[in-house]
Amino acid sequence: MFTDFNFQQFISAFLVLFAVIDITGSIPILINLKKRGKKINAEKATFISLFIFFIFFYAGEAFLKLFNVDISSFAVAGSLIIFVIAMEMILDIEIFKSPEDAPKDASCVPVVFPLIAGAGALTTMISIRAQFATVNIFLAILCNMAIVYVVLKITKKIEAILGNGTIYMLQKFFGIILLAISVKLFTANITRLIENF
After folding, report:
1. pTM exceeds cut of 0.90
2. How confident is the model over 74-133, as pLDDT tens digits?
3. How far apart are CA 160 and CA 157, in angstroms?
């Protein structure tokens, strides 16, 4: 397996996944979640994300087919969730209302899905499977998860360094970026769905 290691492939796969996961762009979302009293367990979120990436790498398409869902439909569903999160950030509103008995742990939703191991990241991983050797993709995923863990762990320190004004500005900026990503993910995959239909 390791004989297939190629540094250029590894870097390419790493950068593609880093851009799609965009954990640095999710910092304002993470801070906003914590301000709303939600808890984020860095170890739990990283491990679950890593597990989802590895399982989806081998069995993702088969799992979705089990429910008669294709990759494009999955991506469209993910894009709608990302769209709602973006609207919350831009308009300072709370669409995902949490009932009083709702768990305070946000490690799985929305941190793992759709922010880290979302539709965009999972579909991207499957699409680059044809371009790069498995070992290079796995190493790229591991390195990205290491960065995810560090960012989740030091969110409070980042908040203290940046200050409320900068965080508010970043929240609006990355809200628009997230909105653009959701629209791109939606239009690219809805077109495929229409063509297949």
Report:
1. no
2. 778 777 877 887 788 788 887 766 565 566 788 898 899 878 998 778 877 877 776 789
3. 5
